[in-house]
Amino acid sequence: MPNTVQGPDGKPRCGWCAATDDFFPYHDNEWGFPVDDDQRLFEKICLEGFQSGLSWRTILAKRENFRAAFQQFDFNKVAKFSDKDVERLLQDAGIVRHRGKIEAVINNAQRAREMVREEGSLAAYFWRFEPEESASTAPQSVSTSDVSRALSKDLKKRGWKFVGPTTAYAFMQAMGLINDHVEDCVTRKAVDRARKKFRRPSFR
């Protein structure tokens, strides 16, 4: 895959956008921009879990279906899902029908509620894992890092599921904990500006 690909406006974007035109709006408006909204953070960690073994193209195409199936990823609502809901979701052709991943979302919703009680918010917890700038590597050169391994280990210790180091790293890339746009990508500077303006959540 080339380092960059020409976007609809003729300007360079990260090479992975070449896979489908659907990637351009996601890349330009979401990927890498810092997020402190708990519901969006929960949605993303769940969708990254669903992506395990699949492509992001598959998940992105089904994202609205996932949102409808999981109450817009309101973890307070999903935490109350029952075995009956699992069976219902296994019949939903609009999502990835994988029992383990569906059950993991429900489990993680319960763990998310605990995290909010313990940490104040999911944002306060996740942003503790923002790497030091000096620890950054060349953009898109790795799929895990020391920090993503630490995040994965801590989440698993807290009872979260489908949160391996690669999933954690993809989450960090997408939610803006790092700026992993390639150097020549036109969106990299926009993400840099957003990260500089972003007010990090306070920790307990």
Automatic annotation (TrEMBL):
InterPro entries: Adenine_glyco, DNA-3mA_glycosylase, DNA_glycosylase. SUPFAM superfamilies: DNA-glycosylase. Gene3D superfamilies: Hypothetical protein, domain 2. This is DNA-3-methyladenine glycosylase I.
